[in-house]
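Re: the request from the purification team.
They wanted to know what the chain is likely to look like in 3D before they choose a buffer screen. I agreed to run a prediction and write the result into the notebook, where they can find it.
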Amino acid sequence: MTETFTFSVRATDGAARTGEISMPRGVIRTPAFMPVGTAATVKAMYPGQVRDLGADIVLGNTYHLMLRPGAERVAELGGLHTFMNWPHPILTDSGGFQVMSLSKLRKLNENGVTFQSHIDGSRHVLTPERSMEIQDLLGSDIQMQFDECVKMPCSDAEAERAMRLSLRWAERSRKAFGGKPGRATFGIVQGAAVPALRVESARALADMDFHGLAIGGLAVGEPQDVMLAMIDTVEPHLPQAKPRYLMGVGTPDDIIESVARGVDMFDCVMPTRAGRHGLAYTRIGRINLRNARHAADPAPLDALSSCPAARDYSRAYLHHLVKSQEILGMMLLTWVNLAYYQELMAGLRAAIAAGGLRDFIAQTKAGWAQGEGR
């Protein structure tokens, strides 16, 4: 650990990299998956469990925390790390995506966004400066610029308008962040599915001296091949010496394909959300515990797993918990999924370091091809 933000690449395999981000609160091994702790909690998990599974960093959400319990209150209570009992690094997003997708009514202009809370209809204004202020009050270690994320598909003109606005907001976000020793701020590449806009955004952000760059506006319903094409387009224009973060991604397959293209960081609600709805991710593919075929199956999800939830409980019992909507079922399957995601990231790091990423990906996909297992 250091008193400043540093990033080092330790090994490469093609475009893929493995390395470390070092910050005062800890080291983040890359490629890294960040469990999503939207409202200061990774749903259905204890913080210690999340850490024990191998997570070096979690994500918190500016929009949700500003609405409830409020950033000022979190600051009065010692900051987000103390509030949620997570003394390790935290990344906060800017709130922009949620403003666009969750708020009841919103009005966008050059200054920012005026919106109504999806919780109680109260009126709020979020600007680049206010977003950075909230993230500072929360005390997060990595803070994201405020941006506009457009829904796809959209017209090229709409993509260009939002991208240029996001660049202007990026300059204001970077200025508002200022210099905070030991903390970092990332810019966000936008441009929808228009290659020229993506390249322009990446180049402009690279000149703004952010600590890292994220690729935003993907995994919002477009086909995987479009997402991967945009990563291929953007990657050559991202600084080699800074971490790359693909926001909101994704499935295990999305992750390994993106790692192979040079992405270092990921977050997604998928493993926790799927766990709460009866879907398990394992080395032998996705397993839907709602299916009746599991009702009398005494076998575990994966007898070879290092995760007790996958190894020590029968599919029949998990099926029963899911069908009965028991909280324990949600807890166990969330545990299974986060364990698998962290095992996947550890496997990717080891494979890159050994120069064997291609073989690792092939073996991993062959395991998934077993589908419902056995």
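For the purification team: The radius of gyration is 20 Å.
Please add any questions underneath this entry.
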